[in-house]
Amino acid sequence: MFNGSRKYTPLPSSPSSPRASSSSSSSSSSSTSASSVPAAPRRSPRALQHHSSLLAQYSSLLESYTEGEIRQLISALVERYSQAMNSGGHELPLFPRSGSRRKRARARHKPCALKELEVSVSELGLGYESDETVLFRYCSGTCEAAVRSYDLSLKSMRSKRRIKKEKVRARPCCRPLAYDDDVSFLDTYNRYYTVNELSAKECGCV
């Protein structure tokens, strides 16, 4: 039986105590297991320096804004994010991707070429009412490679306001050089019509 009035005080831990030995053995075993596990890849100091420099630049940039300008910036970002999510996007379209820019640049600089589209006669906008369909050929593309000295000089004269009132085009345009055969059709009242020079046959820069 133990005396209830007796108090026990914990002994100070010493290097030779079992607890210290057990902790040292556990630490040695953990260090051994840690040494067996490959270390995680660390970021190079150059990348860390670049990251910290970017953070410093952005911090100084934000410090230069007033409180009202920061609020306007945040509201604009939130609005663009909401528009992107409503349109089915999954990311904030702050900056266009380089691939999209290249695609748009290629689309803008496609050479002049002949294209075709199947439309109804009523869609031609010539005043005929007919459900018949025709093959409408048209010219599409740019003429950057066809710019001549005439176009450059004309553009310079316009910029210097030497040519003011006349409506002139200072660059070549993709237009039909020849037209296809005449197109004949019946309207909704069974009247017969023939339209000439409707579809392009050959395209070029003029």
UniProtKB/TrEMBL annotation:
Pfam families: TGF_beta. Keywords: Disulfide bond, Growth factor, Secreted, Signal. One of its GO terms (biological process) is glial cell-derived neurotrophic factor receptor signaling pathway. Signal peptide: none annotated. Residues 101-206 form the TGF-beta family profile domain. It is found in: Secreted. GO terms for cellular component: extracellular region. SMART domains: TGFB. GO terms for molecular function: glial cell-derived neurotrophic factor receptor binding; growth factor activity; receptor tyrosine kinase binding. Residues 1-48 are annotated as: Disordered. Gene3D superfamilies: Cystine-knot cytokines. Residues 14-42 have a biased composition (Low complexity). Belongs to the TGF-beta family. GDNF subfamily. PANTHER family: GDNF SUBFAMILY OF TGF-BETA FAMILY, NEURTURIN. Homodimer; disulfide-linked. Interacts with GFRA2 coreceptor and RET: forms a 2:2:2 ternary complex composed of NRTN ligand, GFRA2 and RET receptor. Also forms a 4:4:4 tetrameric complex composed of 4 copies of NRTN ligand, GFRA2 and RET receptor, which prevents endocytosis of RET. Growth factor that supports the survival of sympathetic neurons in culture. May regulate the development and maintenance of the CNS. Involved in the development of the neural crest. Might control the size of non-neuronal cell population such as haemopoietic cells. Acts by binding to its coreceptor, GFRA2, leading to autophosphorylation and activation of the RET receptor. Heparan sulfate-binding is required for signaling. This is Neurturin. The gene is Nrtn.
